[in-house]
Design goal:
By secondary structure, this protein is mainly α. It is 81% helix and 2% strand. The chain contains 11 helices and 2 strands, in the order H-H-H-H-H-H-H-E-E-H-H-H-H. It has helices at residues 9-15, 18-37, 42-69, 75-94, 97-127, 129-135, 138-156, 185-222, 227-270, 277-304, 307-348; strands spanning 166-169, 174-177. It has a two-stranded antiparallel ribbon. Helix 3 (42-69) runs parallel beside helix 10, helix 4 (75-94) crosses helix 10 and helix 8 runs antiparallel to helix 9. The model is unreliable at 1-40 and 227-232 (pLDDT under 50).
């Protein structure tokens, strides 16, 4: 989601419904002139876009290689979902800003929906492996992906049917749902739908990941040792750790925008925002910046939280803990020996 891209006036004329445009033409013109007067600093946006593309490409290569190795195993479904998530994030970085005006809600909902679907799939795989093997297939996974993209696209295109609208947002260099000025009941419904779907996806993912984590911890405590069971648990643990990373990243990056959007539209619609409009503008700006960071953080989940990397981290931590423990024990023995020597010397005297 290139939410921070500049949206030109021709894109606004093309994409905003004609009735809305004629009513807001003066406002858009004033904001466009204000934008032109602002100093342009494309370095930050260019760097963010370049890093996002690079990290997503690396993560996509890693996931594609893993998918080829585990094509016939239960991990294939998870990898297909994860690859789709990274590909969606990558598309959000490379699509031109004129299209992002209509599709930024799509690129916001897709990662949240995909993260929720991945968490539900892993929860079923960990708690009910036999049922998972019967229900979850590659064909059904692809159908679920298509349905997720379709639902997100339908929600993003609702303003085409006069349910909500996209407008410039402070400091008039990015576009989002109309939440601050001249809000109507349709804008309120649109924001409630967008934020409600996003927060619900995060809540479902939290519940599913919690259940999966508790199940894996209980299985490990029972110490059911078998070679196949150990292999399955290790891969399940890797996937759940990655899901927790995705969920934490999504919660930190998307929750502020979802919550601030709800707060702003309710205050604006009730007419009680006049005194705090500047504060809500800054909150929305902070929220969209954090949401944009999510597309950079997601790939690192798959780059860093792989089983090989986790094993290295575990061994390094274990070696460091053993070294500290041996050093502590050696120091304690030296202190005890010194105390005993001093006691013997005193007794001898």
């Amino acid at each position: 989601m290139l939410a921070m891209q500049h949206c030109n006036s021709s894109a606004i004329i093309t994409l905003i419904p004609l009735s809305n445009y004629t009513r807001e033409e003066g406002t858009v013109s004033q904001r466009h002139n204000a934008t032109l007067r602002r100093p342009s600093n494309p370095t930050g946006a260019s760097l963010t876009m370049t890093l996002g593309i690079l990290f997503n490409v690396v993560a996509l290569i890693i996931l594609a290689k893993a998918y080829n190795r585990f094509r016939q195993r239960s991990k294939a479904t998870f990898l297909l979902f994860a690859s789709s998530l990274v590909a969606t994030d990558l598309a959000g970085h490379v699509i031109p800003g004129a299209l992002v005006l209509r599709l930024m809600v799509f690129f916001g909902l897709c990662p949240l929906f995909l993260g929720c679907a991945m968490a539900a799939e892993r929860c079923l795989g960990v708690t009910r492996p036999l049922l998972h093997a019967q229900l979850v297939t590659t064909a059904r996974t692809k159908m679920a992906l298509a349905l997720i993209w379709l639902i997100a696209l339908c929600v993003a295109l609702l303003p085409c049917f006069n349910l909500g609208a996209y407008t410039y947002q402070y400091p008039w260099t990015w576009c989002f749902i109309r939440v601050l000025e001249d809000t109507k009941v349709t804008d309120l419904i649109f924001v409630l739908l967008f934020s409600g779907l996003g927060l619900s996806s995060l809540a479902v993912a939290l519940v599913c990941n919690t259940i999966s984590g508790i199940t894996l911890v209980r299985a490990r405590l029972r110490k059911r040792t078998s070679s196949h069971g150990h292999w399955t648990r290790s891969h399940d643990t890797e996937m759940v750790v990655q899901l927790v990373g995705i969920m934490v990243s999504s919660c930190i990056c998307w929750s502020p925008l979802l919550v601030f959007g709800l707060m702003s539209v309710t205050q604006s619609y009730s007419g009680s925002m006049s005194k705090d409009s500047d504060a809500y503008r800054k909150l929305m700006m902070m929220g969209v910046r954090m949401a944009t960071c999510n597309q950079i953080l997601d790939p690192w989940v798959y780059i860093l939280l792989r089983r090989a990397i986790l094993k290295k981290i575990y061994h390094i931590t274990k070696r460091h803990a053993s070294f500290k423990g041996s050093t502590f024990r050696s120091t304690w023995r030296d202190i005890t020996s010194l105390q005993s020597s001093e006691k013997n010397t005193v007794n001898h005297v």
